Amino acid sequence: MAELGKKYCVYCLAEVSSLRFRCTECADIELCPDCFSAGAEIGPHRRWHGYQLVDGGRFTLWGAEAEGGWSSREEQLLLDAIEQFGFGNWVLESEYL
Ligand SMILES: [Zn+2]
Ligand SMILES: [Zn+2]
Questions:
Q1: Which end of the chain has less Cβ packing within 10 Å, N or C?
Q2: CB-based contact 33:81 (threshold 8 Å)
């Protein structure tokens, strides 16, 4: 049962309110960093689709401001994903709830 205002990974159903990858080609496909890194495919979605990086309002880029933002685990997953897919393909989008 989804709580209002929370977002869930369509693949593993993990809560992704703080950080998720939204497919730019499928409607309502949002993946957690774990599934994104693993190249999860579900329904019409394929791993090579375009993505937007979406955060729940606490996104901070690396550096001094990162403290209190993402957990180191989330950050590492994102770094892994960037290494795998390249940052240039992405559109960064912030949502302030
Ligand atoms: Zn997931
Ligand atoms: Zn897709």
A1: N
A2: yes
- Give me ligand 2 centre to Cα 5, in Å: 22
| Contact residues for 37 (Cβ-Cβ < 8 A; gap 6+) | 77, 80, 81, 84
The ranges assigned to domains in the chain are 15-43+77-87
What's the pLDDT tens digit per position in 17-75?
878 889 999 998 999 988 998 999 999 999 999 988 887 655 444 443 444 556 667 77
How many residues would you count in the chain? 97
In the DSSP assignment, the letter for residue 92 is: E
Single-letter residue type at 4: L
How far is Cα 51 from Cα 75, in angstroms, rounded to an integer? 17
For 7, which DSSP code?
Answer: -
- DSSP E strands: which ranges in 1-97? 19-23, 30-31, 51-55, 91-94
